[in-house]
Amino acid sequence: MSKATAYLGLGANLGAPIETLRQVLHDIGRLPGIEDFECSGFFGSAPLDAPGPHYVNAVARVHTTLAPLNLLTELQRLEVQYGRIRTSDSVRNAPRTLDLDLLWYDNLSLTTPRLTLPHPRMSKRAFVLRPLAQLSHDFVLNGQPIETLLIGCADQQCVALPNP
């Protein structure tokens, strides 16, 4: 398979979120099929539509030979390794030890029971768009430049954290 570019959303708000994100970034870089990657800085954000402590978020750009569903499987395996529990009665946006989302994959549009690309809520989340803009200031989603998308979530708290 040829090499694809994908963007991953990373977030955590339980335990030691900064340390968790640092460790999982190391693990992502060691996944079979990940050729190289770059990560944004870390950002702090309040949970949306849920109670709990503030999140630490980042976005990583990876170059991979993994197909989208295979990459998602690897990300979900890492979530479980870091204590993420998924149940049928899990509350959406509930606090978690680790959340890894496949946000975008080579401009592919895909809808399956397991994966929708691009991620259906990424254009409405400052905690995704601000770190993504750090990596790709000219990113365009559904015909809209990232600067325009950021204006749409200006009311969401999302602050750059000091480089740990």
Summarize the helices and strands and which ones pair or pack.
Elements: E1 4-12, H1 17-29, E2 34-39, E3 43-45, E4 55-64, H2 68-81, E5 99-105, E6 110-111, E7 116-117, H3 126-135, E8 140-141, E9 144-145, H4 146-151, E10 158-160
Description:
There is one protein chain. The protein has a single domain, classed as Alpha-Beta Plaits, CATH 3.30.70. The protein contains 4 helices and 10 strands, in the order βαβββαβββαββαβ. It is 26% helix and 28% strand. The protein has helices at 17-29, 68-81, 126-135, 146-151; strands at residues 4-12, 34-39, 43-45, 55-64, 99-105, 110-111, 116-117, 140-141, 144-145, 158-160. A hairpin with a 4-residue loop joins strand 6 and strand 7. The strands form 3 sheets. Strands 1, 2, 3, 4, 5 and 10 form a 6-stranded antiparallel β-sheet that branches. Strands 6-7 form a two-stranded antiparallel ribbon. Strands 8-9 form a two-stranded antiparallel ribbon. It is an alpha+beta fold. The mean pLDDT is 92.
